[in-house]
Design goal:
- Belongs to the short-chain dehydrogenases/reductases (SDR) family.
- By secondary structure, the chain is of the alpha/beta class.
- The protein has a single domain, classed as NAD(P)-binding Rossmann-like Domain (Rossmann fold).
- About 50% of the residues lie in helices and about 15% in strands.
- It has helices at about 20-30, 45-50, 65-80, 105-135, 155-175, 200-205, 210-225, 235-245, 245-260, and strands at about 10-15, 35-40, 55-60, 85, 140, 180-185, 185, 230.
- The strands form 2 sheets. A 6-stranded parallel beta sheet has the order 3-2-1-4-5-6, with helices on both faces.
- α1 packs across α7 and α3 packs parallel to α4.
- The longest helix is centred in the middle third of the chain and has 31 residues, at about 105-135.
- The chain is globular, with a radius of gyration of 18 Å.
- The model has no long low-confidence stretch (mean pLDDT about 95).
């Protein structure tokens, strides 16, 4: 399977912090010298990446389908050679359903982590299908989480949204397996990140998470290899134990459906 080094232009969402930022900077250093577009909400962080030589674009996933369509259209107009997207943007909130729930935060989390990711992919796929028809490979790479396989009860919305994205990614891969669009999935374990700042749990997790530089090295190797599943640590253990054999069963179900 082709790897990310075949890409000429890569869009990374959620690129202003954590895994997204580290991957964007690492991709820009590949010997193949791809054009890397760092997308995110925080303009000051984007300007830092611009000074590091990356293209930048302000892109907020917590919005409606019409606004996402406008953003994707602008990206494709400016970067018609776009042939890869890493969908990394995400938020994580703690919810205790024995207490009052902030519904706005719950809905926002689902939108950022799942609904808007799938919507963005839907708007990008026709462009990638045109590349496929011209025998050019492209890549769709959602970032899910180990908690999408084994949920953490204190972050039920986050776990559920990542489980939904994990399931969707598997279906998308099988739908596109007769094209030149390669659907990879990054499944991180607990990694050093600002993701936990919103809940004030960062300090408690510092002795548990994988250092970002180590995680980035492992993930970049998987991207270069073109691995279908790019994971490590506890997330890889969970994937191998609970999900590894599912894709064959899903393919059988799909084959049965095609005979209906």
């Amino acid at each position: 399977m082709p790897g990310i080094e075949e890409s000429k232009c890569i869009l990374v969402t959620g690129a202003t912090a954590g895994i997204g930022r580290a991957l964007a900077l690492s991709l820009a250093k590949l010997p193949s010298n791809p054009q890397v577009i760092a997308a995110g909400r925080r303009q000051d962080r984007l300007e830092e990446l611009k000074r590091a030589g990356l293209e930048i674009i302000q892109f907020d996933l917590d919005t409606d389908a019409s606004s996402l369509k406008s953003s994707v259209d602008l990206i494709l107009e400016k970067y018609p050679n776009l042939d890869a997207v890493i969908l990394n943007a995400g938020v994580q909130y703690e919810f205790d359903f024995k207490k009052e729930i902030n519904i706005a935060k719950l809905q926002s989390e689902l939108n950022i982590n799942y609904t808007s990711v799938v919507t963005t992919i839907a708007y990008l796929t026709p462009h990638f299908l045109k590349l496929s028809a011209a025998s050019q490979p492209s890549f769709i790479i959602p970032v899910t989480a180990g908690l999408g396989i084994v949920p953490a009860v204190w972050v039920p919305g986050y776990s559920a949204s990542k489980a939904a994205l994990h399931s969707y990614t598997t279906s998308l891969r099988l739908q596109l397996n007769d094209t030149n669009i390669h659907v990879l999935e990054i499944i991180p374990p607990l990694v050093e990140s600002e993701l936990h700042d919103a809940e004030g749990t960062t300090e408690k997790l510092t002795n548990l998470w994988m250092p970002l530089d180590k995680y980035t090295e492992v993930t970049m190797q998987g991207l270069r290899n073109g691995d279908t599943i790019i994971s490590t640590g506890g997330s890889l253990v969970w994937y191998d134990k609970y999900d590894k054999d599912k894709e064959g069963v899903i393919a059988q179900l799909q084959a049965a459906r095609e005979k209906w």
